[in-house]
Amino acid sequence: MNLRKLCCLAAILGSLQSCIKDAPQNPEADIVSFTVNKDDLTGDVYIDQTNAKIRLYLKEEAFQKGIVPTITVSAGGQVSPASGDSLKFDNNGIKKYVVTSNNGANKKTYTVEVINIGTWKFDFEKWDTLSYEGADFHYLNPAGEDGHSVWASGNIGIAITGVTEIADFPLHATANAYEGKYAAEIETRPGNALSGWMNIHIFPGSMFLGNFTTDSMMQNPLKCPQFGQPYRGMPKSFTGYYKYQPGAKFQDRNENIIAGKTDACAIYAVLYNGTERLDATNILTSERIIATAILPDGSAKADWTHFDIPFKVTGTPVAPNAQVMMAIIASSSSEGDFYRGAIGSKLVLDNIEIVHE
Amino acid sequence: MLGMLTAATQLFAQNNGNEQTKNNDFKPLLEHRILAGFNFGATAPVNFPNTIRKINGYWPQFCPSLGYELSYRATKKWGASVAVKMDYKGMGTKDEVQYFPTIITTSDGGRFAGTFSGQNQTTVRNAYVSFPVSAVFTPNDNWRFSLGGYVAWLFSSNFYGTVSDGYIRNGGPLGAKIIITEATFDFGKEMRTFDCGLQAGASRRVGKKLSVMGNLSWGLRPVFPGDFKGMDFPMYNIYLTLGVAYKI
């Protein structure tokens, strides 16, 4: 009896194994890494996989002379132009890289963007509508002066949980502007069933200078925002206009309403050393921080309120030629990084500026 | 799957030429049996998709099967039977998948589509009330064979597990990549409540009233409905009951 049982089990197991087919050919077509000589960079290269962008942060000389990137792609894939071909930033230079997957079925076209913030003034007049092939969502993101993306938010992460409509994303444009046609509105939104699986019950509103990477969304969401854009010299102050309305009920991570607690907004700028971006785990605690300008009062402001916050030097001042990064971060829930806040908290920002020394 | 069929054929083969039939005065009669045993097998695709790369483990669940069979022996050798059984069917498996398409829909109408590469562990344990109907061949006093079909209703379902050590790409192989250390899934509520299929069995008398039996049931209806996209291939209940039949 036992022997027969064993035989049958073995037969079943054996037959299952024998059913395994040949491995599927790789359908992925990513640029996995794009390596540039570190001396040419003002900020680490960022590959935006969702929007298929290679963002380069280059020193002036490198921009003039061109660079020679080393590119790796998904296993078995092909990239054109090839890794090691030089990339020049004149009219005839490479603008796009096309990766063909190992199975030949998929192509992903990456656009090269050279990011350089000329004027550190942001009026939020122009917005891009972002989506990607096959996706059923659309969300807004402020467009940079040259059309390149310098701002980011958690919107893409929220899109992945199934939010689709522009107005349902925390960051969007509003016609309620201090000046011009538009301002940036950030609103803490309710989570959904899928985010609930990750014990995320609110989507705190945020926008920041930098990039948002989806890789660590489940492992550690605090590592998703990659704060900062290359900066030169020392800033004097951080100025702008804002309005803030906290939502009615403040809730903790587990959706318990905390009576008597009111949500607060957070607006701050951080200057730090190096080319590697800080994230939400270390943006206010890293040893690389040089100076910060933090809005002291996150309470409700029904009317447009001006802020002018001098940078406070807390770390070692920069050597003249050192590479530094500037991060600007705004959130409609100051404890949003711990998924605590009030649904409906709304922060509107307009005409913000880093005033140079 | 071939191995299983071979095992079944061997059971049949042992019987050949065992005995002479003593075909004297036979009167048609009703027989009653209590059936008890355990189910071993799998809720699995018959044709493995190439996205399943490796089976790293398999273990049966505690799956008792208990029932009552009424049979009518029309002639000495031929008859028919009908039974009512409570059948647990389940298993655990660990496997490795690559570019495995999945679509998850949530109670609030949310939808996540993507392809997963990594490790998967699934536990299945479903309870059915099943009604097998068979033609029965009794070549001699020791052996008894049956062949027929069954219908079954699900009354309790479990289909859950974890995905780990991998990543999922939103929307397909070119979409946003999210690393997954470990996440759970539960498709128990998605399962179809009605199953039907073929079944064949053999039993050997070991006592005056007691026989040992083996009975293979092969589901022909996918366990998930067609609009379920958590797994993009049909899966069937394929189980072997090993146990005893007691004639009352």
From TrEMBL, chain A:
Keywords: Hydrolase
Organism (species): Chitinophaga niastensis
A GO MF label: hydrolase activity
Record's protein name: Putative glycosyl hydrolase or carbohydrate binding protein
InterPro entries: PCMD, Put_CMD_sf
Species classification: Bacteria, Pseudomonadati, Bacteroidota, Chitinophagia, Chitinophagales
Superkingdom classification of source: Bacteria
Segments forming domain Putative carbohydrate metabolism: 123-355
TrEMBL record, chain B:
InterPro entries in alphabetical order: Beta-barrel_OMP_2
Pfam families membership: OMP_b-brl_2
Domain Outer membrane protein beta-barrel intervals: 12-224
Name this polypeptide is given: Outer membrane protein with beta-barrel domain
Species in which this protein is naturally found: Chitinophaga niastensis
